[in-house]
Each structure stands twice: as structure tokens, then as C-alpha cells.
């Protein structure tokens, strides 16, 4: 039997490799009986039995119900013990905090949501977020966290877990978000851009396809998550997909990042609110104008609701945003050639009003080959999307990336996951 150091340091024998593979096969449902494992791996019955017994001994697998018989004795199925650990997802948005706790299979056990301004700064924000996490964990059965995923609404260096010059997050530049969570919970932490969590959630729906997709979020800000052959594409430093700060030709609006003419400054939700006020001051009429005249604050939500009800000004603002976003996506399509584009976010919640204009611009401006099999649709508009995406990212990092480093310990540790051994 392989010793602990062999398992930890990655000098994997055939025995270790097959043991890890069997655990992952059962976890993913690719093979759940001993005969199935033998057929998929090519291992003999005795070897399969030995590996399975070892995985059961270590606490990863256990026997479950009998599978249907195919003519002989019904085989016993195996199950991955997903109840042994918890995955915590903390999705921080520009104006909210969404926290969820799941088992290792991703079944959501509890969640909480509250309004919050990310500009409040890292200390106050993380104090609030961790208090929400503490409440959820305290209401559970004491099962420890095996992984924590944090989503941030700005550029993130994935390797260090630190935000890098995030335009809407004053005081967050270089803050050690990963370290703050790891010190508090003693579990490995991964920090990523919030749109990458949404892209990961969409990827999970196409897990067996090795899909190429773009998830474009058009809310207060604008960003994109890229999946290439089933893998999140972050680029060299984690900045891939930051389309909100691509320059729009001829645009002169000042962006929140300090630059001139960014896509976000033309088509983002905060830009739509700005343009609505300017149009009303110039004499625009309708539902939005009446609302402003009554003293009600104009918000992105009020604009999208008015657009779905046919208000001329709101409709014009949404369609203008869609045209600019569609042109930016068209450039990505020509370079990236995805098979699926998913549009999410508050502005995109106007549905076909926004989507039709995006489709028109993408098909008009992209190469025919790049759009031949392209599907463009809106997101599922599920409030749990960030949690599901965070779970998918955690499962990838735990069981596909770092498993050989911590498997011998029976559960992931910060040191093992990051390869920090004595």
C-alpha cells in the first residue's frame, strides 16, 4: 500500500493513481459498482476490490443499495460520502452578499443574502460576510468546511487570492482575501472574479461536453467569464474576460476606473442611470420621467422594469446598451469562437428586448464560421447561480487539481492544497 509521503508529494504509483481515479469516478457517477469500475479502468476484480476497500477505509466511499441485476447476482453500488465536508461559497457583489453552504456533491443545505455596498471596504465587508458564514455553519451539524470559494466584483489574481485595482472596490487593492478566510476557518480558499463563478455554474450544466462558452454579465458593471474546452480561462494573471474596460470608439464618458470611453461607462447599469437623468433633464417624458418628477430615485432596477413595460426612454437605454455590448461580444466571438454565449445580469433581465439586439450585432459583425453553430441565450436567472458556480469551482480545485496532495490526510488542509509541507 502506498505510503503517506508518496500520496502527498505526487510521485504517484499506479496504485495511487488508480485509487484516486476510483474515488473520483464514484463521486462523479461515471462508475458506481465494482464491475463498472473494472470495465472502465481495465483493472482486475481483485485489484478493484483492494482499491475500493482502501477508499472505504479512508472514509471516501461506502457501500450503498444494490444495482439492478443484468442476469446474474446484483452488484452493490458505491457512494461517495459527500456528507463528510462542507463547501462554503461567499459571493460578494457590488450591492449584495450571498452566502451558501453545500455538501461535497453541491447540494445546497443553507444560504443567506443581504444588501451590502462593496465600497464599504474589505475589513467591514469581510466581517459581515464571515458573520453570515458563521451563522450558517453554526446552524448545521458541525461538519467542517473542506473548501471556501469567494467571488469578488473586480479583477482577481487567482494564484494569490488578492484583488488587483478593482474599480468599484476602494481599499481592496492587494487585500489578502484568501488569507483572511483561511485563518478564520482553517480550510483552503479560492478567490475569483464573480463572473467566473457564473461561468463555472454554466459549465457545470455541460460538464461532459468540454464546452467553449462565454458568460457575459451586464449589470451595474460589465464582465465576461470564459470557458475553453471545459476549463475556466483566466489568462496569465486572471484578467481574461474584463470586457467592461474595452474602449468604445468615439465614446468620451469617464469610467469608474478613471479611463475614458470604457464599455462599462457607455453600457453598464450605472451609465444607464446617468443617461436617464440626463435625458429627463433634456425633456424626456414617460414612466421614468414621471417617477423622477415624483422624487423617486432612479435605479437600474426601475429602468429595467420600465423597459419591460414599454417605456420609450427605458427601452432606448436598454437597446443602446445591448448594441454596444453586442459589438464587444462580436469581437470576442471572432477571437474565441465559443459554441455558447450566456447573457446574465440586471440589464439582461429585460430578456428578448436586450437579447435580440445583442444577437443582431453579433451575427452582423462576426465571421460566418464563428457563428455557424453559435447559441446565444439569457441565463437561467436563478439567484443560486453564484453558489452553484462556486461549488463547481471548489469541486474542480479539490478533486481534479489538488486531490493527490491531500488525499492521504483524508481531508483537505491549507498546507496540503497549496503544497506547503514541512
Short summary of the structure?
Belongs to the ROK (NagC/XylR) family. The protein contains 17 helices and 14 strands.
- This entry's quaternary arrangement is single chain
Mean pLDDT equals 92
Looking at CATH, which topology of the largest domain would you report? Nucleotidyltransferase, domain 5
Number of domains: 3
Q: What is the rounded distance between the termini?
A: 23 Å
What is the CATH H-level superfamily of the largest domain?
A: ATPase, nucleotide binding domain
Topology:
Blueprint: H1 4-9, H2 14-28, H3 34-41, H4 45-57, E1 61-66, E2 76-80, E3 86-92, E4 96-103, E5 108-115, H5 122-138, E6 145-152, E7 156-157, E8 162-163, H6 177-185, E9 189-193, H7 194-204, E10 213-218, E11 222-228, E12 231-233, H8 263-267, H9 269-281, H10 287-293, H11 300-308, H12 312-336, E13 340-344, H13 352-365, H14 368-371, E14 375-378, H15 385-401, H16 403-406, H17 414-417
Helix pairs in contact: 2-4, 3-4, 7-15, 9-12, 11-12, 12-13
Written description of the protein model:
It is globular and about 80 Å long. A 5-stranded mixed sheet has the order 5-4-3-6-9, with helices on both faces. Strands 12-11-10-13-14 form a 5-stranded mixed sheet, with helices on both faces. A two-stranded antiparallel sheet has the order 1-2. It has 3 domains: 4-80, Orthogonal Bundle (Arc Repressor Mutant, subunit A), CATH 1.10.10.10; 84-201 and 384-417, Nucleotidyltransferase, domain 5 (2-Layer Sandwich); 208-378, Nucleotidyltransferase, domain 5, CATH 3.30.420.40. The chain is built from 17 helices and 14 strands. 43% of the residues lie in helices and 18% in strands. The protein has 422 residues and is of the alpha/beta class.
